[in-house]
Amino acid sequence: MDKILLVCSSDKGTKVYTENLKSMGYVHIDTEGNSGSARRRLIHENYSIIIVDTPLKDEFGSDFAIKLSRSGSSGVILVVKSENADLVSAKVEEYGIFVIPKPFTKSIFHQGVKFVFTSLRRFSALKNEKNKLMQQVEDIKKIDRAKCLLIQYNNMTEEEAHKYLEKQAMDARLTRREVADKIINYLGV
């Protein structure tokens, strides 16, 4: 379920954005009129995308967008007047913030939102893959540590230690990492 937070100071703008988002099939849309109330909402809620229509009542919005992109995993879209778009984009692009110049067409807005959602999904997949790889590296380190202990304290060869770990894992229906942890704990190291 994709949730969107729209931060827009104008009622007319809020209506236009909400209608556009609903026409794209997004129904979980919360709105706030300024960055302060949006910050308070973000304490309790998580959003897939946060759209900030500048300028806001209490600040311009680019610094707010940068803080959002640094502090969470939400995609951030910053909508700015076309004459300021290049300048603002240069300031925020290193933070992964997508800038849409206004006025915009419905198709440009739709493409921007879809692009950010696509990027978020890709980033999430890469993050999951990274976490899996990091876990595998940690598992290998533990298994190698357990093998070293078996070699040191039980006078096994590396091949014997490897076979011992595999047999223990298979017999006890545990992973090699779980067996390695038990060996490390048992030998007190």
Automatic annotation (TrEMBL):
Identification of the protein by name: ANTAR domain-containing protein
Organism annotation: Clostridium cibarium
A Pfam family of this chain: ANTAR
All copies of domain ANTAR, residue ranges: 123-184
